[in-house]
Amino acid sequence: MKDEKHRAGYAHEMVMMNLAIFHLLLPVAALSSGYISILLSLALLGSAVMIFWLAYKVRNIDDVGFVQAHWKLAWKRYQLLLIAYAVSTVIMLLGWVLASLQVDHNMFNIILIVFSRIAAVPIILMVLALFVMETTSLTQAKQGLLPK
Q: pTM, whole model, 2 decimals?
């Protein structure tokens, strides 16, 4: 049973590691350095790899129901993160369309900056919410409880 708890908790640990490294650590490092585009691209690529790897594992997992339930829950949480990415993309596209309608180049830059800050909000809020949800799920996995 202890091995099952460890395998069930591994999915949630993976999600939390993704959130910590690719959504908190690398973006902060990018914004505080001169390598913004490189580090943000690396963060996006790393997060995508982890998301696709978990999706692959969920589809190909042949384990007991307890472990499988926790992996599926982790995948559902990643789907929430993907929805936040989609909302942010729509906001950024709207900002780009509005900015491209501007004649003044300074106004173009101002609108892009404003919309980029607004577009970051759904992702930031989802990352914080996922940290709380994944901490709870990891605790449940370590206690041998099925997710609700």
A: 0.87
